Amino acid sequence: MAGTHTTSPADSDLLCQPISKEEAAAQSAALDRVLEHLTTAGIHAELIKRRTDQCALKLYSNGETLWHPPELIVYADAGRRIATVTIGPRSGSYAVELAGVGPGNQPLADRVEFVPAAKPQHVGLLVAQNTGAPK
Q1: What is the full DSSP assignment across 28-91?
Q2: Would you say the pTM of this structure is higher than 0.85?
Q3: What residues are paired with 100 via a beta bridge?
Q4: From what superkingdom does this record's organism come (predicted)?
């Protein structure tokens, strides 16, 4: 079962810390598993933006380039953000930040659900429920 939190993973110092190339690759692979389930849940690939960015930072000890943690950003047909999916650096769990929308499309605080790493299909269902796509 997913845990619910009201703080954004983007607000967490842990998730914003640069990571190694190997960690970025492992997190990208975990997000690839989510992509499969998003398609199954009815989310069209053209509405998904994948962010994998190199940091401007390099480790001086060995010259290794660092990376920002990868993320998937899912948009509605109208262009509003529906969800952002990242990977927890310690747990490997999926952090699913669901955009809140109130009456008249008024933006509300995001809701964050944490889904175990072994259940990427639940991420697809959470995002589909937030978009109104058929389940």
Answers
A1: HHHHHHHHHHHHHTT--GGGEEEE--EEEEE-TTT-PEEEPPPEEEEE-TTS-EEEEEEE-TTT
A2: no
A3: 108
A4: Bacteria
